[in-house]
Write the structure tokens for this entry.
Amino acid sequence: MTAADGVLAAILLGLTAYAILGGADFGGGVWDLLATGPRRDAQRGLIARSMGPVWEANHVWLVFVIIGLFSGFPRAFGVLSRVLVLPLALALLGIVLRGAAFAYRQYGRPDPAGRAVRGTVVWGRVFAVASTITPFVLGVAGAAVATGQLPADGSAGALAPFRSPLPLLAGALALATCAFLAAVFLCRDAEMARAGPGLVADFRRRALAAAALAGGLALAGLPVMWADAPALAGRFDRAVVPAVGSVLAGAAALILLWHRRFGAARVAAAAAPTGLLWGWGLAQYPWLAVGAVDVASGAAPPATSTAILVVLATGMILVTPALALLLRMVRRAGPIERFGDASADSRDVTSPAEA
Amino acid sequence: MLDNLTAAREQMALSLSFHIVFAVLGVGLPWLLLFAEGQALRRADPVWYALARKWAKAVAVLFAIGAVSGTVLSFEFGLLWPTFMERYGGVLGLPFTMEAFAFFLEAIFLGLYLYGWDRLSPRAHWWTGVPVAISGMASAIFVTTANAWMNAPVGVVESAGHTVVAEPLAPFVAPTAGPQVVHLLVAALMVTGFGVAAVYATGLLRGRRDAYHRRGFATGSTLALMLAPVQGVVGDWSSRAVARYQPVKFAALEGLPRTSAGAPLSLGGIYDPATGQMRGAIDIPHGLSLLLHANPTAVVSGLDVVPPADRPPVTVTHLAFDLMIGLGLGMIALALAGLWLWRRCRATSTRWFLRAVVLAAPASVGALLAGWVATEVGRQPWIVYRLLRTADAVSTQPGLELFLYATAAVYAVLTVSLVAILRRLATGAPADLARRPVEVHQ
Ligand code: HDD
Ligand code: HEM
Ligand code: HEM
């Protein structure tokens, strides 16, 4: 194993973290879009409350993947940027709009006198719609490089990634997975926040539905992959263990959800896309974009890869405890007092002496 | 129709200019927060506490927009300049990888800070702000280092267009890194200071003369005005580094067409590429030679040291540079005036001074952007000085023009909403404080 392989593994780990944590945030937006029924506002409130403190940190995983890729695999970054122009530009648009919209919605909401900043309602919708489009195009981008139909110079055209069935299916799968993850996480958050059985039941129903959809799409994907991504299919033997793990984890998540064991269901739910990503990564290795660029031709000079690996390891040692601290604080959040009001800091200002 | 190169450059200029405004506030505001909250803790003082809470909200919104606009940049590096990334992504890798971790720490601790007011002990809460402030500065240092390397690349060996050996630490030892980093950090604190001061100066001008407004004003203006003269000295250091490592850029900054002994200092003016002359500039004879070498007859290199194809667009570079210097000198003058008024205890009651501070906020952003335009346009036609031409680095995908328009439209919309939210945040002291103005004497 070379230093470049190490960097690649770190990127895959970063991608996994983004798929799970960032994915759940996107899924939150999807459920915001689909919020219905008598508890519609409560659903949206819970989503905002769960995402508020963590979405920025979750978003950094994406930045981490991008930067890891262009530092560790500069040539591959160039090639991927050329062949995936359209899906990446769309994903970028979605990411920008979603992030900005989330912040604007939160800080533009009605003040104590009941006046919202103009446009706040619209930003709420933008948040939901952008959260739905982005995972789809990211899924398209991810699967398009596996098809081997995109020459390195980008000459297949900007629309090429959307032209074969596998990427489209993968986009749908990514979307369903995000929705599934979000719903499972929200079940747990609703329970912890003592939000009442109604809200828990809402998200449990949604989680079960999304699980069925994601599972179905994943199974449907297998034959499509055989037809569309022969390079992957040829190396499927490497992916068997993680793929089976993914299926088992998905099934376990369903069972746990059914029995309302939401804490354990979270873990199982996170394991399902993890298995999928790792299986995919193993089957595609050493290609970074099939037929266009591989690890050897895409990597930075060895001294750089080694230096990057050292920085990655050191950085993770710094970041991990901090992340744990943040998650612990969020968990410790008490029951919901301020519904629809995602952050504690909108409270009236009180002095520390009074507090 | 814009050609790809122009579209990509304009897009880069737009998205970097947008990002830098949030980035510098992300660098500066956390320090002010730490100061205000520290005062609140030490003195159990509700006014400082109210200021800290208010600034924290501004940080939250600004950080979110800083994060998304920064993400845009990291995609754009690939989407617009794939060849640049292919060849030098690895060289810039180390600072950018470190930057990613700085972002991580910043985002994580900001989450703790913003959501921890009521969940952490006051002291622990203050401490969660420390890594935010440090990593904000660190990320600015790392990116500026990368930029310094593009200006004065060192430590790469290439063969047939591929980087074969890259000194991993190269960006950190780029000779322009020192002055660029320091100059930028000072600029960040100045922009933050003036921005904060301007909000409270507006309140003071409208007659809200309570402790809340006076302290807000004093904190911001003291920071910014103290740094104004420092920035002049650092800027001088920067000029010397540019003169030494990028003589052609220096000639463009100064508007000096020909290498000459006893070079004049030109102020303003437009460069005419056909005749190779500056038109309409005010020349101070021997000024440049004196400034640079403390010798009225010293030789200074002009644009003519390289063929025309290797020269940057002179007029833009020169005017942007003059604008920055002019604004910088104006701020130094304002600092002197502020010192004089402060000694007479009239700094918060002199209306023209308050008005000038209100104007200094956009002026400092202007100087910041002008400085960057001078730096970046002055590097042309190179994306990496003398190693890779911008024209050779640009993407060949069709439709970059549309990408530019879409970006401009999205940023316009984001700006409108952001201004609306910040305006609401800026309206006055929290109700319970406004009712009891406290007199303070420093
Ligand atoms: C508040 C903002 C501000 C102010 C008041 C000044 N500058 Fe500046 N300047 C910047 C903000 C800035 C900047 C935006 O931060 C730049 C762009 C790139 C960089 O490293 O710093 C810059 C670049 C920059 C450069 C080019 C560096 C390069 O290309 O590597 C020089 C020579 C100076 N400055 C010199 C000065 C001088 C002599 C000033 C006298 C008062 C001055 N600046 C005031
Ligand atoms: C000198 C110019 C720059 C400075 C001083 C700077 C500084 C910062 C700072 C302080 C932040 C934190 C966000 C905030 O506080 O608003 C930030 C965010 C970011 N910047 Fe920049 N930046 C600069 C240029 C760039 C460039 C050229 C890139 C492109 C690679 C970039 C990429 C990013 C990214 C990806 C983020 C988001 C990180 C997150 O998700 O939190 N920045 N930048
Ligand atoms: C944040 C403050 C910055 C501003 C306002 C800024 C401004 C600009 C402008 C005006 C251009 C277009 C120049 C032209 O084509 O005539 C440009 C180009 C560019 N800048 Fe910057 N810049 C900033 C910081 C940075 C940093 C920190 C980096 C890299 C680490 C960077 C990398 C680039 C690249 C790659 C280009 C495109 C190629 C080129 O035109 O040379 N910039 N920038």
User: Anything to note?
Assistant: The beta strands of chain A are 287-289, 293-294. The mean pLDDT of chain A is 81. Chain A touches chain B through 79 residues (CB under 8 Å).
